[in-house]
Amino acid sequence: MLVIYWTVFRYSNWEFIIAATEKGLCFTGSENQGVDELRAWVNKAFKGMELIEDKEKLAPYAKQFQQYFDCQRGEIDFPLDFKGTDFQMSVWAALRAIPYGTTYSYSDIAERLNNPKSVRAVGTAIGSNPVMIVIPCHRVIGKNGTLTGFRAGLDMKKRLLELEGIKL
């Protein structure tokens, strides 16, 4: 049987689930949502996978998250294992190109994809991002500079941006 390993990542006042397959990180949870959020996501994206809690298996991932939260690492670069449509994958690749400490608008992402009319679809793809922080969807804000939707809530988005030195 195929397995997804998971653990709770805790750092200061941050707490969220991280999960990985043998191939790489596949899920970053919302703050304080616990394993139920992971179970619901697995039932949609990786149906039939067994969930096993394993802190040691996730230790290399937790180490990079800790370095990120300690402001010792701008980008997280461990292996990833997730799936999406071709469009989602192109949006997520565009998000990975946003430099640490920088924000782009949804329109900026649509234009980078050479499809300026796809702003709404870009927003939907961003909302489906299974590995928040690693694929930095928190760096996408409204065209007018305001905070907009984030799967983990606007409070977490704001705190991630502040961590990266971005003041809104």
Main features:
168 residues; alpha/beta; 4-stranded mixed sheet; two-stranded parallel ribbon; 6 helices; 35% helix; 17% strand
Instruction: Determine the CATH topology of the largest domain.
Output: Arc Repressor Mutant, subunit A
Biggest pleated-sheet summary: 4 strands, mixed
Specify Rg, calculated over alpha carbons: 15 Å
Shape label: globular
Kindly estimate the percentage of residues that lie in beta strands according to DSSP.
15-25%
Main sheet: which strands, in order across?
3-2-1-4
Secondary structure tally: strands: 6
Average residue pLDDT: 93
In short:
The protein is an alpha/beta fold. The chain has helices at residues 35-45, 59-69, 86-96, 106-112, 119-127, 154-163; strands spanning 3-11, 14-20, 25-28, 50-53, 104-105, 140-141.
Characterise the protein shown here.
With 168 residues, this protein is α/β, with parallel strands linked by helices. The protein folds into 2 domains: 67 residues; 78 residues, Arc Repressor Mutant, subunit A. The chain is built from 6 helices and 6 strands. The strands form 2 sheets. The chain has a 4-stranded mixed sheet with strand order 3-2-1-4, sandwiched between helices. The chain has a two-stranded parallel ribbon with strand order 5-6. A hairpin with a 2-residue loop joins strand 1 and strand 2. Helix 4 packs across helix 5. The radius of gyration is 15 Å and the shape is globular.
